């Protein structure tokens, strides 16, 4: 039996065509980075409550041992990626660009592991037992959002899903981590997909990949040859941000997630290919999420590579594995150029959600200006959420956050299309982020006032 390869039946609005520049690493096999002598594990790598540490300074830990448990239902566990001694528990800067409580581990070089509990008979287990294994493994969305996966796999009563979408679009320029994962571990991506399908009981499965990755499409088609039922690989039109959750759902189903809604509101669930592979590792091998593939690239690094690194590895170790930073390097970005976060140094630990590290020379950078909007409307045409970034930006500049809310600023996905298209080089994404943060604060105050 062979799986179908189909074209995406729908085309979402907006989007842009940046220079993708994936050729530097797309053909490079993943290389494993040796375990560093020091690892820094953020307890706030995910959406939701921070993880609660269950170790203290001086404790010896093993690879795979829980060092922090979920701090609530919407939270996630954190595991030690190697054996060693807990050196400190303190607030430190993270690869997400913010300070958070972290567990620092001094590796002992033994890489001694705790006992794992595989479930080779997973198809005989109830969905609840599998979701518990996913939660115990500390798996979160690895496409960037970091939402705890066990929560996504547990829809509330009354919410049913009929379509599972596995996201292999990787539309962010420069990044090739998911691409290499599909080429080198397609069987694991498919195994994780089957496990998710079993948990949800859905009939329709789509593995979505942009059509600029024909080798990945072929690899997944081959891995999925034993598929049964309504299963297909979808070749997406290459256009940023095709891999954004709401845009992906529309491309495949034609359904629009309502404002303020979730994918489950339209019967869909989206998981990244990395998340699917991590689920397979957790269920088939009993291994928690302790490592990930990360693309280190850009014209400011000597030898761009795709690396397999332990979570918590200092980013400087990854750069050293690529020959180091060139003297002309001027900017460090955690993630890609469109949605990444600028860092002021490399002495932070790799997060579960860090898919790329971009090092750029000054000559390759563009800079924002304080010019006023020229009213061209290009940002409106580019916005995949059908927003009016120019008007929202002006409301934020005027500190009229109620006005920004009335223009649906909370629907912004911060993809950067508006800033990419703006001929005046206005900092539109920064304005959108500020507006969203201020609106969120005001909403919390309004809710608190209702219960006061």
Explain what you see:
By secondary structure, the protein is an alpha/beta fold. It has helices at residues 127-136, 149-152, 177-184, 186-200, 214-223, 245-253, 273-285, 315-321, 378-382, 389-397, 401-406, 417-421, 428-451; strands spanning 4-7, 31-32, 38-42, 52-53, 60-61, 66-69, 78-79, 84-93, 99-107, 163-167, 204-210, 231-236, 268-272, 291-297, 305-310, 329-334, 341-343, 356-361. A six-stranded mixed β-sheet has the order 2-15-14-18-16-17, sandwiched between helices. A five-stranded parallel β-sheet has the order 1-12-11-10-13, with helices on both faces. β14 (291-297) and β15 form a beta hairpin. 50% of the residues are buried.
Which helices and strands occur, and which strands form pairs?
Blueprint: E1 4-7, E2 31-32, E3 38-42, E4 52-53, E5 60-61, E6 66-69, E7 78-79, E8 84-93, E9 99-107, H1 127-136, H2 149-152, E10 163-167, H3 177-184, H4 186-200, E11 204-210, H5 214-223, E12 231-236, H6 245-253, E13 268-272, H7 273-285, E14 291-297, E15 305-310, H8 315-321, E16 329-334, E17 341-343, E18 356-361, H9 378-382, H10 389-397, H11 401-406, H12 417-421, H13 428-451
Parallel strand pairs: 1-12, 2-15, 10-11, 10-13, 11-12, 14-18
Antiparallel strand pairs: 3-9, 4-6, 5-8, 6-7, 8-9, 14-15, 16-17, 16-18
Helix pairs in contact: 1-4, 3-5, 4-5, 4-7, 10-13
